[in-house]
Known about the structure:
Number of helices: 9
CATH topology: TIM Barrel
CATH superfamily: Aldolase class I
Oligomer: single chain
Low-confidence stretches: none
Helix content: 25-40%
Radius of gyration: 18 Å
Structural class: alpha/beta
Largest sheet: 7 strands, parallel
Number of domains: 1
Number of strands: 11
CATH class: Alpha Beta
Shape: globular
Distance between the termini: 30 Å
Bound molecules: iron/sulfur cluster
Amino acid sequence: MHTDIKNLTIETFSYCNAECIICPNSxxxxxxxxxxxxxxxxxxIIRLFPKLNEVTLCGxxxxxxxxxxxxxxxxxxxxxxxxxxxxxSNGSLLNKWEEFLLNNENLSSIIFSVxxxxxxxxxxxxxxxxxDKIYNNIIHFIEKRQLMKKTKLKVEISFIRTSLNIHELNIxxxxxxxxxxxxxxxxxxxNWNGTLKNYHNLVDAPKLFSRPCPMYENxxxxxxxxxxxxCCYNFNFTYGNVKNDGxxxxxxxxxxxxxxxxxxxxxxxxxxx
Length: 273
Ligand code: SF4
């Protein structure tokens, strides 16, 4: 039960400053109200899990756009001084937080979402962001980490494969290896339970086979409104609000088939490969 949960993915805000075409935020029909989780609720939620040793700040939002980052880390430290924190970020606001993040003992890894190498492809996929500024931000951050010998802090990159960027994957990997990035992850494109516009043109290879969706069990994801959501690719289905409804619905969920885990997942490609 929730006493065994060691890793939680949580949003503190529902806003992102980008409009990537591979994210449901680009689809006006699915865009959420801008909402900040209160710091009181944030602390309440992470205290629900006594064995928690890792908090991941991630979801359909940009964690570095939350100006309360220092208070958020203060709360995490108060709950567990040894808590590891992971952040997924687009890197656009990194210069504002560089000192803070590099001097933060709880930050164990920062994973930058960078889905293109050339300015043309990057800017086509990651709307509202500036490729050259972000590349410079990340390179500067890595160089500073080397100088400060912050070897415990991992700096990683995620690249989502699409029909637009797949031809850049090798040069992308080589470039970041040269810049001493710890890991480059390349992930498949997801259709976010059928909410991603233009998915069929963006997917790099058709998914022809079924599989038990690996996202169903892990991790536990709580959105900025306090809702326990289906998974990190479906913020529309909720198991209820953690403060009002508790976690029983989440912990008593059962897969209904060996492919799509539940009836609302039928339109999702999480169970296809
Ligand atoms: S199939 Fe369901 S559990 Fe899997 S990624 Fe899609 S919405 Fe999430």
